[in-house]
Write a structure and sequence with these properties.
170 residues, mainly alpha, 71% helix
Length: 170
Amino acid sequence: MFDQENQKQKQYSRPKQSALSYSLMLIKIRLRSEHELVKKMTEKNYLEDEIKKVIADLKNVDLINDERFAKMWLLTQNNIRPSGKQYLIFKMKHFGLSKEIIENAFAELDEEFDELILAKKLLESKKRSFMRFEKHKKKEKMLALLIRRGFCYSVAKEVVEEIKDEISNF
């Protein structure tokens, strides 16, 4: 009983981290969208006025920039986890990015975002996992993987058809 009371006192006696230092800590880990930071600070019960002030300050020093965040996130995703446009749009909306910002990011990165190339890259990286299946089953598995990763059916089918001669080597 005494330990529980003592632990509660320790919990309350710890000074609350300022909203600015909390935001800077989050940004230090990785770039964040404005929506993400507001959501995180709200979860930590910071006052709305304090949140607005911190967001304004961070925008003034260009630590929050949703356009830059969108471009950087797309580039990172393309390198780490190739995915289709549908999936990426869904995730970017989850970050609170507007439709306009999303469209601009895709437009600026148009050369680097070719779904056919990304789909081939994904299949190439997963090549070993398809080796144990028969040819027709490989096609099914590849198609399913591409669709799960947000590639539209027509792109997925085109890529699988394009590499059908190579499938036996997969």
